[in-house]
Amino acid sequence: MGKVMWKPGTFLYPIPAVMVSCGDMEKSNIITVAWTGIINTNPPMVYVSVRPTRYSYELIKASGEFVINLTNERLAYATDWCGVKTGAKVDKFKEMKLSKEKAEFVSCPMIQQSPISIECRVKEEKYLGSHTMFIAEVLAIHVKEEYIGETGAFDISKCNLIAYANGGYYTLDKKIGKFGYSVAKKKKNNSKDRILKVKEEENKRKKKERNIKKKKANKKKKEK
Ligand SMILES: Cc1cc2nc3c(=O)[nH]c(=O)nc-3n(C[C@H](O)[C@H](O)[C@H](O)COP(=O)(O)O)c2cc1C
């Protein structure tokens, strides 16, 4: 079967659906944003695209700061709710029973229940037609301690992060590979391989012994 051509649209999935907290500890708000992503490694830069009609737009524009709070299965309901209600009318922290946590560098609160909160400072704004893209530098990342193991390694699989695709929220159930696995060399000398090799050697040795015995027996027969 071939492909059907559609008119241009924003069909680039999966993407994250994050809860962006903005304002300050007193006057704060949460807006759900799916138009977000990483745009540079060094310095670490991200963006969020927000429609100027959103209540959050003015808060972000005024302070030049926001926090990206990653969302997990437990936060899925609140993520959706904060994406359909406006902070002009409701206190989203209160209604969703979310707690504010003080950030290190920005005045906006972080969402305590989020597994990872990313402090951001706006560097550039770009109005693109429907949304304004806030390009921002990452100032700090706050990771919940429960996802960090004894060795200090961060286990992202424990966070139960969710993805957004074509109007739906999805869990990320299974890891199917890791960066570079397609070209990674197969590990030699793992225990399974070692056992097989030992068995192979043993079989060769036995075969050799059998051949020697056979030859000896034949020789004796001939001598008789
Ligand atoms: C899954 C999801 C993703 C969304 N992504 C965006 C987005 O990227 N940009 C945006 O301006 N609005 C987005 N919205 C809509 C806003 O979150 C929504 O209009 C919200 O009510 C605005 O809140 P505010 O008025 O308190 O700022 C999204 C909503 C949902 C449910």
Explain the overall architecture.
GO terms for molecular function: FMN binding; oxidoreductase activity, acting on the CH-NH group of donors, NAD or NADP as acceptor. Keywords: Flavoprotein. By secondary structure, the protein is an alpha+beta fold. The protein has two domains: 18-171, Electron Transport, Fmn-binding Protein, Chain A (Pnp Oxidase, Chain A, Roll), CATH 2.30.110.10; 185-224. Helix content is 23%, strand content 29%. The chain has helices at 55-63, 76-81, 92-95, 191-223; strands at residues 18-23, 28-33, 36-40, 45-50, 65-69, 100-101, 110-111, 116-127, 132-143, 162-165, 168-171. The protein has a seven-stranded antiparallel beta sheet. A two-stranded antiparallel sheet has the order 6-7. The protein has a two-stranded antiparallel ribbon with strand order 10-11. The longest helix is centred in the last third of the chain and has 33 residues, at 191-223. The chain is elongated. The N and C termini lie far apart (78 Å). The mean pLDDT is 95. The protein binds flavin mononucleotide. Flavin mononucleotide is lined by residues 17, 29, 31-35, 49-51, 54-56, 80, 83-88, 131, 164.
